[in-house]
Specification:
The chain has a three-stranded antiparallel sheet. The chain has one domain: Winged helix-like DNA-binding domain superfamily/Winged helix DNA-binding domain (Arc Repressor Mutant, subunit A). Helix 3 packs across helix 6, helix 4 packs across helix 5 and helix 6 crosses helix 7. The two termini are about 25 Å apart. The protein is globular. The protein has about 170 residues and is mainly alpha-helical. A hairpin with a 7-residue loop joins strand 2 and strand 3. The chain is built from seven helices and three strands.
Length: about 170
């Protein structure tokens, strides 16, 4: 029997792996500074919440899935989690019994503002670090931009208590 390992994403798809690490970093930073680290709004939930917040009177789940460019099943699962945490309400549509409307809550707006400000701060820090690389004459590809962020975060393990690697 041969012992074959599947190909490594880290080696064969470094950009995909880097994006995964960057998402993990953002999640950890958000959890670290969240008022309630067990029930904070994730970055993915914030992206979905922004679509809900643009229609405060309610948005049908099917429309939400189209706006979020994902499947209805994925949106349904995420909306359920968001409703359990009190970020949104899910109510029957007043004119169509087959449809459910998703509406934002005050807690959802507060959490969204928190995630938004945290993401903007991290992005500004990262962009500043990348700008330093560019001033030094280094060429930045998308992968280089992502790796510069990882390099910055490796210098600061105390932020989340975790070191970020590419392997």
């Amino acid at each position: 029997m041969r012992d074959e390992r599947p190909p490594s994403l880290s080696e064969h798809a470094p950009l995909v792996n880097t994006v995964r690490i960057l998402e993990a970093r953002q999640r950890d930073v958000a959890a670290n500074v969240a008022p309630d680290p067990l029930f904070f709004m994730t970055l993915q939930q914030a992206f979905l919440f922004q679509h809900v917040a643009r229609a405060p009177s309610g948005v049908p789940m099917v429309v939400l899935a189209n706006r979020a460019l994902t499947s209805a099943a994925a949106v349904t699962q995420m909306v359920r989690r968001m409703a359990l945490r009190g970020f949104v309400n899910v109510e029957p549509h007043p004119h169509d019994g087959r449809c459910r409307l998703v509406t934002p809550t005050a807690k959802g707006y507060r959490e969204y503002e928190h995630v938004f400000s945290t993401a903007v701060q991290e992005d500004q820090r990262w962009s500043g670090y990348v700008a330093t690389h560019l001033r030094q004459g280094r060429v930045m590809s998308i992968e280089g931009y992502a790796r510069a962020g990882l390099e910055l975060w490796r210098l600061e393990p105390e932020v989340t208590g975790r070191r970020y690697g590419t392997g």
